[in-house]
């Protein structure tokens, strides 16, 4: 019999399945709020002007396409360090951050996970409950046992912070804690500054390992503001991991532009850590691709393009906030009794809408409004043309 006769069909990606159903739906009013991407007010995936301008510069340079170094474009890695830690920050100036270009935020997480697994094979990983669904799979595939810490409190429509802290305070030393640095996916609820202080203190006291996933820097309150968690961990004096991504902030989803940065005790340690990260990369895909990293490096290192990017990013951030406010106001205007104002307290692309699974199923089947059955909707897929229909539909299912 064939080599593969016993291979089982793996479960389908639930979100991709939803998208397929959406594509097949003939309802002309259909709206896809299940996605994890930012669409503009015309419902289109934007190609940022700063990206177009960077690409024009790159085209004019007619650069050959040699292999990149294993850790990527040096100017890219340097720009990521500045963005994540601050250009004049002590960790950057002292050279104690090891940064590698990675295949999106996912790639950054996986390179970090593979390195961590070699470092401490018996460590457990804790992810938030709920979390981005790939966290569990990714750390499991890297060989870890993955468990959760409490995060979302459905009754309170907020964070179960006591539960989270208790989980950290009872985790064994060496446990890897995956934290959403900003714009928590899927709930939209971020920790306050005071809560971050407590998390950082617990990580330090319990000798845990923080792994910050910062996939949405600039989508919450601003580039610097969204880096608050990173700053707090730096101030604690602890070593930690941070994966970052330009998928959303530069709308470069398909180019796979991300990074992993590891804050080390000193420059010598950073050099040794970097050498190990390079082995992980070398044995997986050898070195990263040129195009996306070059776009990001060009934008971040060219003052006019950097300024243009910051304006465009602010535009995306502001539009999402406007959609949150509009959603709440329109639901109220349609006579919905339930208070949805919590949606404006959430940040980033997503909202845990508080709608039940049955309501989400009705939205999809009766109205062609597609969201995740957990109640997660992508606020960044709402626009001035579809929001009335979406709010009308929600009003009908909650009535
Ligand atoms: N982490 C989180 C929390 C995410 O939501 C995502 C993307 N949706 C990623 C990581 C991965 O991002 P990328 O597409 O850059 O790999």
UniProtKB/TrEMBL annotation:
Signal peptide: none
Needed cofactors: pyridoxal 5'-phosphate
Family indicated by similarity: Belongs to the class-I pyridoxal-phosphate-dependent aminotransferase family.
Assembly and oligomerization: Homodimer.
One Gene Ontology cellular component annotation held by this UniProt entry: cytosol
InterPro entries: Aminotransferase_I/II_large, Asp_trans, NHTrfase_class1_PyrdxlP-BS, PyrdxlP-dep_Trfase, PyrdxlP-dep_Trfase_major, PyrdxlP-dep_Trfase_small
Record's keyword annotation contains Chaperone: no
Record-level GO BP terms: L-phenylalanine biosynthetic process from chorismate via phenylpyruvate
Start and end residues of each Aminotransferase class I/classII large domain: 29-394
Matches recorded under Gene3D superfamilies: Aspartate Aminotransferase, domain 1, Type I PLP-dependent aspartate aminotransferase-like (Major domain)
Protein name: Aminotransferase
Keywords for the protein's UniProt record, in alphabetical order: Aminotransferase, Pyridoxal phosphate, Transferase
NCBIfam families per the UniProt record, alphabetical: PRK09257.1 (NF006719)
A Pfam entry, by short name: Aminotran_1_2
GO molecular function: identical protein binding; L-tyrosine-2-oxoglutarate transaminase activity; pyridoxal phosphate binding
Enzyme class: transferase
């Amino acid at each position: 019999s064939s080599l593969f006769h016993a291979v089982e069909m793996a479960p389908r990606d639930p979100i991709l399945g939803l998208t397929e159903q959406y594509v097949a739906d003939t309802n002309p009013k259909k709206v896809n709020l299940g996605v994890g991407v930012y669409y503009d007010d015309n419902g289109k995936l934007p190609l940022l002007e700063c990206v177009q301008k960077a690409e024009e510069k790159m085209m004019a340079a007619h650069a050959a396409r040699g292999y990149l170094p294993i850790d990527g474009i040096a100017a890219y890695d340097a720009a990521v360090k500045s963005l994540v830690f601050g250009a004049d920050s002590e960790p950057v100036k002292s050279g104690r951050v090891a940064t590698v270009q990675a295949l999106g935020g996912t790639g950054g997480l996986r390179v970090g996970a593979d390195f961590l697994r070699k470092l401490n094979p018996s460590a457990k990983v804790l992810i938030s409950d709920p979390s981005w669904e790939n966290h569990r799979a990714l750390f499991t595939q890297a060989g870890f046992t993955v468990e959760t810490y409490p995060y979302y409190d459905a009754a309170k429509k907020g964070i179960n912070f006591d539960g989270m802290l208790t989980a950290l305070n009872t985790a064994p030393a060496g446990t890897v804690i995956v934290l959403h640095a900003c714009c928590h996916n899927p709930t939209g609820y971020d920790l306050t500054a005071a809560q971050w202080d407590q998390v950082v203190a617990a990580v330090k006291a319990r000798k845990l390992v923080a792994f910050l996933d910062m996939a949405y820097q600039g989508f919450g309150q601003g580039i610097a503001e969204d880096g608050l968690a990173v700053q707090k961990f730096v101030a604690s004096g602890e070593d930690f991991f941070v994966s970052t991504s330009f998928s959303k902030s530069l709308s470069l989803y398909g180019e796979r532009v991300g990074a992993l940065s590891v804050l080390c005790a000193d420059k010598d340690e950073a050099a040794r850590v970097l050498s190990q990260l390079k082995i992980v990369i070398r044995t997986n895909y050898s070195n990263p691709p040129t195009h996306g990293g070059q776009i990001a490096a060009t934008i971040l290192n060219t003052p006019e393009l950097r300024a243009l990017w910051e304006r465009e990013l602010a535009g995306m951030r502001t539009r999402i906030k406007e959609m949150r406010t509009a959603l709440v106001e329109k639901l109220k205007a349609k006579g919905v009794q339930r208070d949805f104002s919590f949606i404006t307290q959430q940040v980033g692309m997503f909202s845990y809408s508080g709608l039940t699974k049955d309501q989400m199923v009705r939205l999809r089947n009766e109205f062609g409004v597609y969201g995740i059955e957990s109640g997660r909707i992508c606020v960044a897929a709402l626009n001035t043309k579809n929001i009335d229909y979406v709010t009308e539909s929600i009003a009908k299912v909650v009535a």
